[in-house]
Amino acid sequence: MDNLQLLTIIAEEALTTMLEKEIAQLGAKGYTASVVTGKGLKDTRNNLWEGENIKIETVVSEDTCNKILAHLKSKYFERYAMIAFHHPVNVVRSSHFQ
């Protein structure tokens, strides 16, 4: 087993396609995306006009994780409702992620 990073991004649904494309360009070999709900500092989204939230998870090396986080910080964090976090994970089939 190798130690890799599980990077989780929660963002506005409108960003889905762009985020999926960009994380792949920055080195992610794949991802899982799903629609999620929740409450944060800016409250909940209550109507269809605002869209829903998405969660994108990807397992990447620490270097790739840092590249993606730097990109998100410079392009999205100031202008969009978004959070990103990561933690180490032990992966059995690590060759699928590197």
User: How far apart, in Å, are the first and last alpha carbons?
Assistant: 13 Å
Enumerate the strands of the largest sheet in spatial order, edge to edge or round the barrel. Answer: 2-3-1-4
**What structural class do you assign from the helix and strand content?**
alpha+beta
Shape: globular
Please state roughly what percent of the residues sit in beta strands, choosing from under 5%, 5-15%, 15-25%, 25-35%, 35-45% or over 45%. Answer: 25-35%
**What number is the mean pLDDT?**
87
Uncertain runs: none
DSSP summary: helix tally? 2
Radius of gyration: 14 Å
Helix content: 10-25%
| Number of β-strand runs | 4
Describe it.
- The chain is α+β, with helices and mostly antiparallel strands.
- The protein is 24% helix and 35% strand.
- It has helices at residues 16-25, 62-75, and strands at 2-12, 32-36, 53-60, 82-91.
- The protein has a four-stranded antiparallel sheet.
- The protein is globular and about 40 Å long.
- It starts with a strand and ends in a 7-residue tail after the last strand.
